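Attaching the record inline, Q. Sequence:
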Amino acid sequence: MIASLMMCLSVVLLLIGMLGGIVMGIQENFVLAPAHAHLNLVGGVLLFLFGLYYRLIPAAGRSTLAKAQGWLHMTGAILFPAGVALVVLKGTAFLIAPVLGSLIVVAAMALFVVIVFRTAQA
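Structure, as predicted:
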């Protein structure tokens, strides 16, 4: 269940990121390039890879830890690049958003490390 949700969200975020990249290219305005890059990598690529791992190792994907990791990463994958965009466009008054988003992503990644080490032999 969590794997499917992660993979579906990842392709939507990647499509949004790619369309944003095209718009930046057409406008020749790359001010949001950091947000674009983080959305594609953290939201698109990493979420999809996590989902693939959970599909490859079904026991890992069914664990409570995987559900927590998935929800944390999905939250951070949206908050982090959105926060970067806010800071770039509106200034450092919004710095809490990318900081919180990046910390959530790191926490989710740490949980994934634990999950992989626990299930690597499966």
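The chain has one domain: 2-119. Residues 64-90 form the longest helix (27 residues).

More tomorrow.
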